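Lecture 7 notes: from sequence to structure.

We start with a single chain of 53 residues. Read the sequence below before looking at the structure.
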Amino acid sequence: MLYQEYSAGNSSENAGVKVSNMDINDTYINAVKNSIKGSLIDLRYIDKIKREK
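Now the structure, written as tokens:
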């Protein structure tokens, strides 16, 4: 799963890849900040990315 999140509390952004296996173990691969080329926000609003509730 690709993820991109923003925290207004400390004005920080995180992005990367979350990998889940059958044992419900999660591995996070964080993006290198200066390698990010765009935003996932446009895909959220046209329902191409499932949003957590």
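The chain has a mean pLDDT of 73. Keep this in mind for problem set 3.
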